[in-house]
Amino acid sequence: MTFQKIFYVNTEQKPWYKVLLWWEIRRIPYNVLLVAFGFLIIQLISILPGNGYFKLYPGPALVIWTFALIAIFFIMANICYSIGWIIQLLTRNFNHALVKKHTTRLFIYGLIISVIILFVPLILAILNIILPEQLLELVDKLLKSIFRIIN
Q1: Tens of pLDDT along 116-144?
Q2: Could you tell me if 103 and 11 are in contact, meaning their C-beta atoms sit under 8 angstroms apart?
């Protein structure tokens, strides 16, 4: 099987259950790739100099929070993954060239976005080492803006 056959969405007219089956068969490799990149990110963060991005204290709380954050990420990633087949089902009757072009690449787009999101903690950890004061100010401003919007 070629890369294109495995990861590019076939936009031919087919029943909804075949569209869903195409996506669900690829959910396993999608999650395997996310686990591999997630493990890589954790390893890279753990070798950074200093105390790391967060001051972590070993114990049951750390394990629970780590698994909770991983579970939340994977639930969100798989909800976003499901949006791929929903978009394909909603747009399968469109004959516009732009829709067809991007529909065939939905799986690839989603995978790239998920991997980029996985790199956010590493980027923040590196910024924390290079610009600790500026990062703290940026996070403080961001949180204050969010709370102003909420209230």
Answers
A1: 888 887 787 777 777 777 777 887 788 78
A2: yes
